[in-house]
Amino acid sequence: MQLQFSRHRKLRSSANMRALVRENHLRAEDFIYPLFIYEGENIRKEVSSMPGVFQISMDHLHAEMEDIVAHGIKAVLLFGIPATKDECGGQAYHDHGIVQEATRYIKKHFPDILVIADTCLCEYTSHGHCGVVKGEKILNDESLELLVKTAVSQAQAGADIIAPSNMMDGFVAAIRAGLDEAGFTEIPIMSYAVKYASSFYGPFREAAEGAPQFGDRKTYQMDPANRLEAFREAESDVAEGADFLIVKPGMPYLDIVRDMKNNFNVPIVIYNVSGEYAMIKAAAQNGWLDEKKTVLEMLVGMKRAGADLIITYHAKDAIRWLKEEQ
Ligand code: PBG
């Protein structure tokens, strides 16, 4: 009997054969590494739910940046934890706010490293919401004003890219206009366009100390059940001038990453968030998963799904492991 079938295994016969036909690759340039800068002195505190991730004060920044450069990371995403919080998040747009200071320091001592400033208020507000609060409501247009002030002060400090994560409507239009008016026409906006109201942010809220003090973020972040809503968000952000689109979280939303890649002609960024990191770390610590293999598989899967760039807490490890494999 003559069977008719295809021999797919021909292209899997050896390591070199597999390398020859590999479709997607990870590179150091693909990664953006988040940093948590803590206002104060002599602080280098590991986030308990994110082993290997530290909140650091400015006096530890130099050593941290040297380590980042040594690993070959080219871009960092800055989050700040201010010493004082208030109703309107004043430290987010203060000239000497923690992110502004850290940005100035990095651009002075490590000028080639791209500084991406997260533009949000939740780490700076006493109520932990990403905008101005009135009663139990998060006000949209009133928040835009403060977000513009934040973005402009971050640009003034030297940030290379502004990354608004607050999910107020019109934040790209407002920030673009504000940056242009202040003379920062060359600074791109990396919009957290497609950001879901996700439980996977849990460990981040410990790291950034920005958990909402009442309610949740469901009136401004997206419903995890929705797909078409992602198109609406991305369409308006691109129309308003977004230069990059972020999809967040990563792993449970790879279908959305593919949708964005197929439909928008700007670089697509995936945010491999804190909860995804924590799950792999916990399983690895228990000996249940091989950390290196799992992380590299997950990250290349994100590229296969259509991500051009990956924001990930695994960046240092991943780059080290990729070098080992060469
Ligand atoms: C701030 C912000 C959050 C994250 C990034 N920026 C938390 C949130 O929206 O509650 C989450 C990142 C992570 O989980 O790694 N708005």
From TrEMBL:
Cofactor: Zn(2+)
InterPro entries attached to this UniProt entry: ALAD, ALAD_AS, Aldolase_TIM
Reaction(s) catalysed by this chain's protein: 2 5-aminolevulinate = porphobilinogen + 2 H2O + H(+)
Keywords from the UniProt entry: Heme biosynthesis, Lyase, Magnesium, Metal-binding, Porphyrin biosynthesis, Zinc
A GO cellular component annotation in the UniProt record: cytosol
A Pfam family the protein falls into: ALAD
Annotated binding of Zn(2+), by residue: C120, C122, C130
Biological or metabolic pathway of the protein: Porphyrin-containing compound metabolism; protoporphyrin-IX biosynthesis; coproporphyrinogen-III from 5-aminolevulinate: step 1/4
Residues annotated as binding 5-aminolevulinate 2: S274, Y313
SUPFAM superfamilies in alphabetical order: Aldolase (SSF51569)
Chain residues that bind Mg(2+): E233
NCBIfam families, per the entry: PRK09283.1 (NF006762)
Function field: Catalyzes an early step in the biosynthesis of tetrapyrroles. Binds two molecules of 5-aminolevulinate per subunit, each at a distinct site, and catalyzes their condensation to form porphobilinogen.
Protein name, entry field: Delta-aminolevulinic acid dehydratase
Source organism: Neobacillus thermocopriae
Gene for this chain: hemB
